[in-house]
């Protein structure tokens, strides 16, 4: 069993890292603003499923491969940049179509892909497992427990971002405001892509 003081350290690491602004939280807030909490649910579940999967993958050994092959990080970085630019295009397209039809909410796959191509997430998970796994304890139990706690913290922290996005943009209902919102979210996604690409 993982010691209580280690759980304190894990939570002290995970909560600020997950709650802090970054590419994923910006996308979650934009989705919450555009689709509301309910409409963002499939994307959010995909996002958290990605968190859980990558925790298992890193916990059971990928961290050693990434350390040995830094090129893998570059592939994630540029893949993530391209995917975020795709999301920007979706928001811009929703702005152009504001009078014709609404943009479909982001899907489970969009959430999973967005999380999986986010270098910040990979860095967080890599650090968490490299710092807090204890070789003297059973690996399967540790990795499973840490992954579940990481995802639980993610659910809570990401809800805050989605809900805040919904509250901030819930009063925007006119066609002109919806076009402006699509443009603003598209610009946010371009800024996030630039941050991912050049950080």
Automatic annotation (TrEMBL):
GO terms for molecular function: amino acid transmembrane transporter activity. The chain crosses the membrane at residues 6-31, 43-63, 75-92, 139-164, 176-198. Pfam families: LysE (PF01810). Keywords: Cell membrane, Membrane, Transmembrane, Transmembrane helix. One of its GO terms (cellular component) is plasma membrane. It is a multi-pass membrane protein. Its main location: membrane. The keyword Acyltransferase does not apply. Signal peptide: none annotated. It is found in: Cell membrane. This is LysE family translocator.
């Amino acid at each position: 069993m993982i010691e209580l003081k280690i759980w304190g350290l894990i939570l002290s690491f995970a909560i600020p890292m997950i709650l802090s602004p970054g590419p994923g939280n910006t996308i979650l807030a934009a989705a919450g603003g555009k689709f509301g909490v309910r409409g963002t649910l499939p994307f959010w579940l995909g996002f958290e499923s990605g968190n859980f999967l990558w925790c298992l993958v890193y916990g059971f050994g990928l961290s050693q491969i990434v350390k040995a092959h830094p090129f893998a990080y570059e592939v994630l970085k540029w893949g993530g940049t391209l995917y975020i630019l795709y999301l920007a295009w979706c928001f811009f397209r929703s702005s152009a179509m504001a009078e014709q039809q609404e943009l479909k909410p982001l899907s489970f796959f969009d959430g999973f892909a967005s999380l999986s191509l986010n270098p910040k997430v990979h860095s967080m998970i890599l650090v968490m497992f490299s710092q807090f796994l204890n070789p003297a304890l059973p690996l399967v139990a540790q990795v499973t427990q840490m992954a579940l706690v990481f995802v639980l913290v993610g659910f809570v922290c990401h809800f805050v971002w989605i809900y805040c996005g919904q509250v901030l943009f819930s009063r925007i209902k006119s066609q002109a405001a919806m076009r402006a919102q699509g443009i603003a979210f598209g610009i946010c996604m371009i800024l996030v892509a630039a941050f991912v690409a050049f950080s």
